[in-house]
Amino acid sequence: MEQNDTNDDRSRKSSMTTTITAGGDAAPASTGAGIGKIPATWDLAADVVVVGAGAAGLAAAIKAVDAGASVIVVETNYDVGGHAIISGGNTPLGGGTSAQKKYGIEDSPDLVFSDLTDWSIVQPNGWPDYRYNDRAVMRAFADHCALTYEFLLENGVTFKDIPPDNQGGHNLGNSAPRENHLTWTKGAGLESPNARAGTSLVRPLEANARAKGVRFLLNYKMTGLIREPSAEQKAGRVIGVAARHTARIMPGRTTPLGSFRSGGNIEATQPSVTIRARKAVILATGGSTGNVNFRRMFDPRLTDALQVAGEPYSFQDASGELAATAVGASLWGFANQTLENGDNIRTKRALATRYNYMTWELESPIFPLVRATGLNVQDWQDLILVNQVGKRFYDETKGDYPHGNVYNEIHPYTPHDYRNNENIKFNPTKYNFFNAAVAMNEYSEPPDYSAGPVWAIFDADAAEREKWKLTRPYVDTDGYFFSAKTLPELAAAIKNPYQARPMVGAVLQATVDRYNSFVESGVDLDFGKPGLKHRIQTPPFYAAWATPLVHDTRAGLRINNKCRVMDMNGQVIPGLYCAGESAGGFNQHGLGRCTTQGYIAGKNAATERSEG
Ligand SMILES: Cc1cc2nc3c(=O)[nH]c(=O)nc-3n(C[C@H](O)[C@H](O)[C@H](O)COP(=O)(O)OP(=O)(O)OC[C@H]3O[C@@H](n4cnc5c(N)ncnc54)[C@H](O)[C@@H]3O)c2cc1C
Question: Number of folded domains in the chain?
Answer without folding.
Answer: 1
